[in-house]
Amino acid sequence: MRVKKGINPQIFFLLFLFFISQITFPQSNKYGLVIHGGAGTILKSSMTPEKEAEYISKLNEVLQTGYKILENGGSSLDAVVAVINIMEDSPLFNAGKGAVLTEKGVAELDAAIMDGKTLKAGAIAGIKHVKNPITLARLVMDKSPHVMMIGEGAEEFAKENNIEMVDNNYFITPNRWKQYQKMKEAQDKKVKEEKHGTVGCVALDKNGNLAAGTSTGGMMMKKFGRVGDSPIIGAGTFADNNTCAVSGTGYGEYFIRLNVARDISDLMAYKNLSLNDAANEVIMNKLPKLGGDGGIIAIDKNGNIAMPFNTEGMYRGYLMNGEQPVIKIYKE
Ligand code: ASP
Known about the structure:
The protein is built from nine helices and twelve strands. It is an alpha+beta fold and 332 residues long. It has one domain (33-330): Glutamine Phosphoribosylpyrophosphate, subunit 1, domain 1, CATH 3.60.20.30. Strands 4-3-2-6-5-1-11-12 form an eight-stranded mixed sheet. Strands 7-8-9-10 form a four-stranded antiparallel sheet. The longest helix is centred in the first third of the chain and has 23 residues, at 49-71. The termini are far apart.
């Protein structure tokens, strides 16, 4: 009897169809976004129902805006910038308007964005007059040969590119000023009051591209010139199509020392951990072991999401295709 060599043509055809479908639709068909509005001492007991409703409504508006962009085929980068712009313009968060103040009572803003497809990134730090820091970070990525620009030089670059500039007072809301003065008085008595509210967004678009962005005023009472983790690529912001996109919030110095965002990605890349396991290992184990607190939001290339934090609360939410939006503030 002759043994037939080679693949049966029908099987060959089916295999051919399978491979073509993988080239045309390589990703799972998930798309969507995850947002955060800062982690910290956010307790239900110290929240009024009105304030809570205000946060939920803003987080929902933000999610819907980002989602619409993705649904219409827009890029994850565009969604991240649009989402963060809204949060920067809202006095509810510690980014743009409503940012916390330095020891000297000035707003100094940091932001970063990263493209998971190209690994391009843009970051700015120590900004005092740019209305939307994330927009400037994107410009650094798109229109300069650099990754990070700081202070006056970054602001000059902003002006050259006709970005909206504002007086530093624009960022200082009455609430932040009150908080600043209270803390200034308390400083001598060594009273520790935690205030967070950094904003971030990670997104996965219909083309399977990931992006991450973070924007912040940093830490209340920080020393002039202090730069946190948010604009440090790999610390507070990171995206790689092969693994995940991450945006962090919390005590920035610890995030920098641990390279939190990149560590999560690396645990996936080198140890084959799931997004959830990688994020938990870094946020619930490594970070508190070192004495740091905070949380992250992350999304992977398959649309899995993670939002671990080791503080009392974190403003957070996500909206994926085919699902209802989820918004949370406190620990479960
Ligand atoms: N991570 C920010 C920073 O250290 C602050 C925060 O997220 O609350 O600048």
